[in-house]
Amino acid sequence: MAATGDNSGSARSRAVSEVVDLVSSLIRFDTSNTGDPATTKGERECAEWVARQLEDAGYTTEYVESGLPGRGNVFARLPGADSSRGALLLHGHLDVVPAEAADWSVHPFSGAVQDGYVWGRGAIDMKDMVGMMLAVARQFKIEGTVPPRDLVFAFLADEENGGKWGSQWLVENRPDLFAGITEAVGEVGGFSLTVPRPDGGERRLYLVETAEKGLGWMRLRAKARAGHGSFLHEDNAVTILAAAVARLGTHTFPLVVSDSVAEFLAAVSEETGLAFDPGSKDIEGTLAKLGSISRIIGATLRDTANPTMLNAGYKANVIPQTAEAVVDCRVVPGRLAEFEREVDELIGPDVEREWVTKLDSYETTFDGHLVDAMNEAILAHDPHGRTVPYMLSGGTDAKAFADLGIRCFGFAPLRLPPELDFAALFHGVDERVPVDALEFGTDVLEHFLLHS
């Protein structure tokens, strides 16, 4: 049948009725990505389960292992009413970061549904969106719904390691899977941020990701003469490296306000009455008034270089010849050359650097038919909401798809309680997603796809 309107005010849809069970089931697959292919697990089993859910609804799926055994990806296409239009890609990753069970209130791979939440690693990064995609895809196929354009559903491996054995490999080796796709929607966007209004009321802003910083993992290496730990050593690789890491890790990069960030700040200023002056030395202090989300937004105002790993030495009384560190670098669009220049000045001539992983930044404009469809879908289910663009401080699989000329957004809609520290849940302990946020998001996603 032809695409129909949304379910606003009507009975619960098939997709809404099953989304919580789907997300809980997805979480029960331990798909921990350690960054080491030898110890990363669970992606194949989870991908095969996703394929079965799609096939049970009537889809023909394609299962692809991206370069290494077990790195499972699943693709399914739903033809639209006008296949001459560019197709829309909906993508979600199946891997998650590891979790230490002893630190959690519930087992991180239990998928427990309690206290109004679905709990577990991946609940918001990003098996919530995977579950919503799967629920809506199944409903469309079972009920014979024909969307306005072709939809391609992609369930991917290895996002948590930069997509080397997932989206990056697929784009380089299987570009045919993305033929005809012009736009894409993925994670870390569409969630609500509740802000106070000057009249004493509140407004829910739904943050649509239109940009993300460049992602780079940089290795630093210092070399010097090895020797006995009891001797005097002016030339010590550990000392040289440690000093360079300290300078870099404590450095504050200059304030840079990109177009997406400027639009976000203008919208928040309009709603709250707060003045976000890019020339102010205390713009971060003003941002802090927005609550926990300020950690994500604040990180989009500057480049960051955070040391995350150190490695040197093999015995207590031996000064090693080599010392190494890894630094997690996130770079504002258009800043890469200047960022590298600043890094070189900070680490000095005695420390070598190389990019272990280097993925470009991305930014698009907050306009066009797809943005209008996002806004209409939000307003259909939250008439007092407002969509606004923002930049993600991290990175997603969108970086790979942008290399194919696909226009990418983050839109995984969730209406969140104002008191929930959403930012802390990403890669955090007791990761969880509200049940009613999942149900809301599924309704919004269905409306969006029917009008995309």
TrEMBL record:
Signal peptide: none annotated. Keywords: Hydrolase, Metal-binding, Zinc. The keyword Metal-binding applies. InterPro entries: ArgE/DapE_CS (IPR001261), Bact_exopeptidase_dim_dom (IPR036264), Peptidase_M20 (IPR002933), Peptidase_M20_dimer (IPR011650), Peptidase_M20A (IPR050072). Its cofactor is Zn(2+). GO terms for molecular function: hydrolase activity; metal ion binding. Residues 210-336 form the Peptidase M20 dimerisation domain. It comes from the Bacteria. The keyword Disulfide bond does not apply. PANTHER family: ACETYLORNITHINE DEACETYLASE, PEPTIDASE M20 DIMERISATION DOMAIN-CONTAINING PROTEIN. Belongs to the peptidase M20A family. This is M20/M25/M40 family metallo-hydrolase. It comes from Nocardia speluncae.
